[in-house]
Amino acid sequence: MSIQQNFPAISPSLNLNFARSKTLDPRITFSRTTTATRVNEQGLVEVVSADIPRFDHEYDASTGVIKSLGLLVEEQRSNRVTNNEDLSLWKQNSNPTLNSNDTVSPDGNTTADKVTQTNQVFTGVSTDMSGITTNTVYSCSVFIKPDGDTTTRFGFYDTSNWQGSLDTDWSSGEPSTNGSLGGASDIVYEEYPNGWYRASFKASTQSNAFAGTVSFHCHPDRTGTGKSAWFWGAQLEAGAFPTSYIPTSGSTETRNPDKVSMEGDNFSDWYNQSEGTVFASFRAQAQPSATKYLMGISNNSSGELIYIRATASGSDSAMRDGGSDVAYKPIAYSRDINTLSKHCVSYKQNDFIVSAQGQISTVDDNCTVPTPTNISIGSLYNTTHLGGTISQLTYYPRRLTNTQLQNLTK
Fold first, then answer.
1. What's the whole-model pTM score?
2. Quick check: 59 and 39 in contact, CB under 8 A?
C-alpha cells in the first residue's frame, strides 16, 4: 500500500497547529475577561492579560527542555487562598523560622519564602480561608522547593480535622509520597526550573467533621530541627483537578473561562456540510471523572452537533441531527496529564466512524448529517471546558479511509 493510501492526499481546509505556531488563526474569536497565567518559553509562570490567549509549556528537568503544549483552554476557577505569595502575612505556628523573599520563585522573581523547623513539634505557617463548603471536591496545590534532605506537608484544615493533606519525602532528590490525610487522592508532582515542583491533590470536604475556620497549611520536616523548604503560590479551588496558577494579593481571585470559536464565514469557508474529518491532539489536565469537550461543531444548541470529548475511560464522539442523537462511538484507552491523546471523527451520510490512539470503531451506517454554523474549540458552547491544552486541530473536507484515520491517531 502506498504512502498516499496510508495518509490523506487531500490538503486540510483548516490546520490549527497551536503547539508549533503559538498563534491564533485570525478567523478565531477569543475572549477571557480576566488575567490568567501560563508557563512560558523559559518554563516560568507568567501572567497574561485579559483577552490574550495562552500558549502553554512544560519543563523536563531530565533534559532541561521546554516543550510547547499548545493552546490552553480552561473553565472558570477561584483561588480561596489570599496573599498566596507572601508567607509573612500568614500565621506562624510553633515559631518556625521564616525568611521572606529568600530565593527565586517559579515566576522568576525573588519572592519565595523559606520555612525552617525550629523544634520537633508541628511547626509551619497557615492562613485562614473563606467560602469553603461541606461535601465539596477541592483541588489543593502549592509550589515547593526542598532544601536538601527534608519532608513537607501541605493541605487544608478545619480547626479539628485535616480535610486533605499530602506528606512528601524529598530525601532522594525526587518527590515521594509518604502519607496523606482526609482522603487526598490524584496526587501529582509537576517539575519547574530551579528545583521547583508544583504538588497537588484533590479531597472532598466532610459533612460530619467540618467545624470552624478552614486554613491552608505549609510545613517543613516534622521529625527534626533545622530542616526547611521554600513554599510559593498556594491554591485551593473547587474542582476535581488543579488548573493553572491563580495569584492573589489580599483577597480571593477568580480566573474567568477561555472562549474560543469560529462562526459565520470564518466557519463555512472551511467546513464541508456533506462529509469531513476532524483530527485533534490534546492533553487534559487530569483524567476527568466527567466528560470534557475538546470541540463542538454545532448551531449553538444541542440540536445540530458533532463533538469530541475526553472521558474518564478515553475519548468519544457523537453526531446529533434534528435534536436527536444519530451516532455515538467511544474508544477506551489510558490517559493522564502526560499523555498526548489523538482523536479523529469522520462523517458523511450513513457513515460515521471514530479513531483514537490507533484504534478504530465500527461504522454507524444509519445516520444523518447535522447542519452546524460554528465550532467551539476547547469547550461546548463555551461551557464544559476541556481544562487542558490543544496541540493541533485539523479539518479535512472528506471522509478519510479507515487506514488513514488510524495512522493519524497512532
1. 0.94
2. yes
